[in-house]
Amino acid sequence: xxVLLTGHKGYIGTVMLPMLEAAGHEVVGxxxxxxxxxxxxxxxxxxxxxxxxxxxxxxxxLEGIDAVVHLAALSNDVLGDLNPEIxxxxxxxxxxxxxxxxxxxGVGRFVFASSCSMYGASGAAGALTEEAPFAPITAYxxxxxxxxxxxxRMASESFCPTFMRNATAYGVSPRMRFDVVVNxxxxxxxTTGEVHLKSDGSAWRPLVxxxxxxxxxxxxxxxxxxxxxxxxxxxxxxQDNYRISEIAEFVREAVPNSxxxxxxxxxxxxxxxxxxxxxxxTSFPNHPxxxxxxxxxxxxxxxxRAIGLELNDFEGARYKRIAQLKELLGRGELxxxxxxxxQQPALERSV
Length: 351
Prior knowledge:
15 strands, single chain
């Protein structure tokens, strides 16, 4: 297929794009490149890309496209709360607009990166299937619910939306995120010797490696449309539902001479849920997810060692997304809508 991948310069996108190409797809990336100053380790420029805000995608960008894989979003609960209205503008309204344009120009597939955070306050009453009621807490999670509801109504014989409800992501990427729990706890342990818990550790969280998120997208694109049309899939493995305290113990075991500690005032996390991933496993037996959390922690730890990560790198503006955006806003490089001020008209290039 010829795939339009939004958010191709982000945390997941920089890992997913080469995996889509390896699966035989031709990929065009679209990204405003908000985190261009936050590259972690080696980064390969993409072969075909459009540097443009997802809100500004035009119908012409979708001509000749067979499938849209839509990752682009303000992808962080804290970041989403920075300005909830912009979160809804980007994550909800721009996503629905993109789906409508894709449908109208004849794009057959629309794969949406949704999130298990939609189940956020469900508690520990048992693993939740795709039929479970939503209990979103943050603007980010609420925006995912709204997109699923609006785009589902567009499904038809000629337009096939699929909703990938990803568990909490982890793993190494050229556009690393340090705000997700596994990456964050490992960073604290490596740089300070303490696995630094900001909650009491009792909450449940389902986890999935970003390579496995990408592997699941490949599976959906390869599937017959009738198998995935208007379907939601929880993306992760059943054995990877863990309490935060259990994740901390894995990190302590992986990072030499580290201990577990708690931030002052650490309390229970409202986001607390377990997820059932059986539907994906049953639907795609030839595309199993491969990463375990301990193996992922080891990958992350070795990446931190390789670059000599320091505390200020991930707690300061270099890699911390909300800090980076606040710095760019303060310098006047981004306007209040989070668009680049000095960027030339939307750039399209082949490299």
